[in-house]
Amino acid sequence: MASSSRKARITSASSVMYTNAVYWPNHRVYQGDTPGELNYGCINRVYYAYANVTADGGVFLSDEWADAGVPCDGVQGALGSLMHLKQKYSHLQVVLSIGGGNSTETFPIVASNAVLRDNFGRSARGLVEASGLDGIDVVWEYPCTPQQGNDFLALLATIRLHLPEDRYVLTAALPAAKAVLQNIDLRRAAEYLDAVNLVAYDFFGSWSHRSGHQSQLYSMSKEEPSGASGVQLLMAAGVPGKKILLGIPLFGRSFLHVTGPGHKNRGGGGEDGSFEYNQLPRKGTKEQVDKRAVAAQCVGGDGGFVTYDNPDTVKVKATFCKQKGVGGLFYWNAPSDSKDSKRSLIATGFRTLHSS
To answer: Residue 222, Cβ neighbours under 10 Å: how many?
Structure first.
């Protein structure tokens, strides 16, 4: 019975013109956030992040209390809340995101071994079925050699044996970086995947030598990454546009003591060099948009140069998706969005994608 209703949900989701997806990290419950606070009128997929993967290929929820224990929206656990919301909104898919930064070392081990890959597929399916989820999202940050690229494909192929495509969603997050993308046969990867979540942000940050726009749609030089070049790389490699989701950050990256891109990095303000989008622009600063790069910024105050997206840049990015035949947008991460619907990036993206 579960599978037929899930099948109907996948079919109804594929008839939606564009996907507008969000990531919801489980640790946000400790900041008082809940999935019930979001506006599901403009969200059709939630990636619940993250489940962990062990070196033997086992997949398990990373925080039992946050996922299934804490009182949340009148039920138990943030995942419990999403399962409840799924009953309420027939268009909503809830997908379990597996991996993230914590599993960078584990994925290469699991993916390189047929027995461990099978354990992963079996374990993921068990968790998906037990929780009533719609599928999984693989966040291996990131296959960084051609061998790992081959192993990544083998992992996707194995997952599909356990989570067949007529019943389950399978997606993967990949960066808009040639250095990573060139390791993967993307055309073949796209045959297994419902979507590639293109991480079109974090181009610049505390780790980079210079300041720069962290999520620019267009770059001023060939060397710099951008959202548009990432989309182009995927499509040129044979990924259908409708299987690409362009990533939007709901946070800004801060560079202190500089006034814009291209300066020596002297450290960042905020928490780990970033501010949540709902705390931007910083007090006493004026928000500006670099129309060539398609990037918002504010300069001054406690953030120095802060680079982020705002409603103006998201409108341009959503329009770009429509023009290029890209499948839609995703946002990291939902609780950081503005509560004001005019300022909300999730709502702006949705409205622009679905306006004529």
So the answer is: 6
Residue given tokens 């990037």 in the structure block: 295
Least confident range from 9-13, 16-20, 226-230: namely 9-13
pLDDT tens profile 47-99: 999 999 999 999 999 999 999 999 999 999 999 999 999 999 999 999 999 99
User: Amino acid identity, residue 42?
Assistant: C
The SS3 of residue 255 is strand
Identify the DSSP state of 309. -
β partners of residue 247: 330
**Beta strands 45-53 and 59-61, pairing class:** antiparallel
132-185 pLDDT tens trace:
999 999 999 999 999 999 999 999 999 999 999 999 999 999 999 999 999 999
Tally Cβ neighbours within 10 Å of residue 101: 8
* Residues annotated catalytic, as ranges: 141
Band the pLDDT of 211: cuts 50, 70, 90: very high
The type of residue at 334 is A
**Cα–Cα distance, 349 to 356 (Å, whole number):** 13
What domains does the chain contain, in order, with CATH numbers?
2-249+310-353 (3.20.20.80)
**198 contacts 244 by C-beta, under 8 angstroms:** yes
Per the CB < 8 A criterion, the answer to whether 40 and 348 are in contact is: no
| Residue the block writes with tokens 């037990």 | 130
* Angle at which helices 311-324 and 345-353 cross, to 10°: 30
